[in-house]
Amino acid sequence: MDQPPHARTEAFLVDDAPLLRFHKRLALHAGGGPFLDGYVLSIIGIAMVQITPQWGLNSAQQGLIAASATIGIFLGSFLGGRLTDRFGRWRLYTFDLIAVVVFSVAQFWVDGFWWLFLLRVLIGVAIGADYPVAASLLTEFTPKKYRGPFIGSLTVMWFLGAASAYVVGDLVSGVGDQGWRWVLASAAVPAALTVLARTGTPESPRWLAGKGRVAEASAIITKIFGPHATLEIESGSSAGAIGPLWKSGYLGRIVFVTTFWTASVVPLFAVYAFGPRILAGLGLDGRVANMGSAVVTILLLVSCVIALTAINKLGRRTLLIHSFAWSGLTLLLLGLFPGSPVPVILCLFATYAIFTGGAQVLQLVYPNELFPTEIRGSAVGLASSLSRVGGAVGTYMVPIALDRWGIGPTMLGAAAIALIGLAVSAAWAPETRGKSLADSARI
């Protein structure tokens, strides 16, 4: 059982607080946004199997629909980061996912390419806005001993959402030739459940203290951690401002985070948006390809769980470098030997899944630890937005690359991007293991 926080009689920092049931609940419902991100991005791969022949979509249109949610996340992450630093974490914490419910249901009645594209962009905007809000809130409540695994768990929720999408999509799409409508609308269910779970979540005391609302911050800290808990505040910047992000130290951190984040998501998003088609190009087809995508996703989920157990033991830097090195190698082998027997192809995909987990879980850990509270949301939102530019371009290019060059060169391109991530990580990745938020954000 958790130690009752009020039982402690000595003063302690929130960064050194014990792990409470509050933290576990917060991590669970904060993961609702990443779950929906994985679900929405992956479910389109199932739906497109029916939509493409019904609407006669060409490769460019397929790429635009697949990339639409990612485009929305680009816009929403930046906007959500600015708003959450200026107006607080709590205000956006439920409103953004209410929008996901509404737009997901609206997809059921969509009757044309551009309407579907627009709705999925709007869904992406709402999900993107949730990233800096939920991640900042979780970061600012969680003790440093558990911060890495807890923030990294948001990525686990992404893969759980992706795996759920493949299973639900495969089952629901079989209801008829209009099954894709139910497939796309199904995202409203986890979105609504997350909204209900988030009701009553308190505002971040770090954000409140940074705005001068010290009494409110102290009341929340006392209620959760007890009367002897205190808060160490990072050196301040203008809340919601972009200017401080371009300071010498922070600019380097933005470049590092954005580059490694992009290098980790581009191959991954390509695999998810067109997983069944890529596996079909490698010799699998039909339900075997759909289930193969689900198996790979489950392995990715396991990989992220393994990475969470190693993040404090190996450190952030070592975990990131090894993740890029070995996942990039497997993509290279897939590109060089696309005609290998099916068991070999599946083994290589599984190996990629196992090794990419480290880079995936660090996507949110690094930006939340490297920037102070006053600009944390803006930094996470900006890095997320910029990385999604690469993700959107990569997703858009997949069907075009498959049509023009085939599966081998497409996988070689993915390998090249992963190896760029390796080079950037080896050159710039810092180590933030065991540091308080004030120390890790200091430049």
From TrEMBL:
<keyword id="KW-0813">Transport</keyword>
<protein>
    <submittedName>
        <fullName>MFS transporter, putative metabolite transport protein</fullName>
    </submittedName>
</protein>
<feature type="transmembrane region" description="Helical">
    <location>
        <begin position="410"/>
        <end position="429"/>
    </location>
</feature>
<feature type="domain" description="Major facilitator superfamily (MFS) profile">
    <location>
        <begin position="26"/>
        <end position="433"/>
    </location>
</feature>
<feature type="transmembrane region" description="Helical">
    <location>
        <begin position="26"/>
        <end position="51"/>
    </location>
</feature>
<feature type="transmembrane region" description="Helical">
    <location>
        <begin position="343"/>
        <end position="366"/>
    </location>
</feature>
<dbReference type="InterPro" id="IPR020846">
    <property type="entry name" value="MFS_dom"/>
</dbReference>
<dbReference type="InterPro" id="IPR036259">
    <property type="entry name" value="MFS_trans_sf"/>
</dbReference>
<dbReference type="GO" id="GO:0022857">
    <property type="term" value="F:transmembrane transporter activity"/>
</dbReference>
<feature type="transmembrane region" description="Helical">
    <location>
        <begin position="180"/>
        <end position="197"/>
    </location>
</feature>
<feature type="transmembrane region" description="Helical">
    <location>
        <begin position="92"/>
        <end position="110"/>
    </location>
</feature>
<feature type="transmembrane region" description="Helical">
    <location>
        <begin position="150"/>
        <end position="168"/>
    </location>
</feature>
<feature type="transmembrane region" description="Helical">
    <location>
        <begin position="116"/>
        <end position="138"/>
    </location>
</feature>
<dbReference type="InterPro" id="IPR005829">
    <property type="entry name" value="Sugar_transporter_CS"/>
</dbReference>
<keyword id="KW-0812">Transmembrane</keyword>
<dbReference type="GO" id="GO:0005886">
    <property type="term" value="C:plasma membrane"/>
</dbReference>
<feature type="transmembrane region" description="Helical">
    <location>
        <begin position="378"/>
        <end position="398"/>
    </location>
</feature>
<keyword id="KW-0472">Membrane</keyword>
<keyword id="KW-1133">Transmembrane helix</keyword>
<feature type="transmembrane region" description="Helical">
    <location>
        <begin position="294"/>
        <end position="312"/>
    </location>
</feature>
<feature type="transmembrane region" description="Helical">
    <location>
        <begin position="63"/>
        <end position="80"/>
    </location>
</feature>
<feature type="transmembrane region" description="Helical">
    <location>
        <begin position="254"/>
        <end position="274"/>
    </location>
</feature>
<feature type="transmembrane region" description="Helical">
    <location>
        <begin position="319"/>
        <end position="337"/>
    </location>
</feature>
<dbReference type="InterPro" id="IPR005828">
    <property type="entry name" value="MFS_sugar_transport-like"/>
</dbReference>
<dbReference type="Pfam" id="PF00083">
    <property type="entry name" value="Sugar_tr"/>
</dbReference>
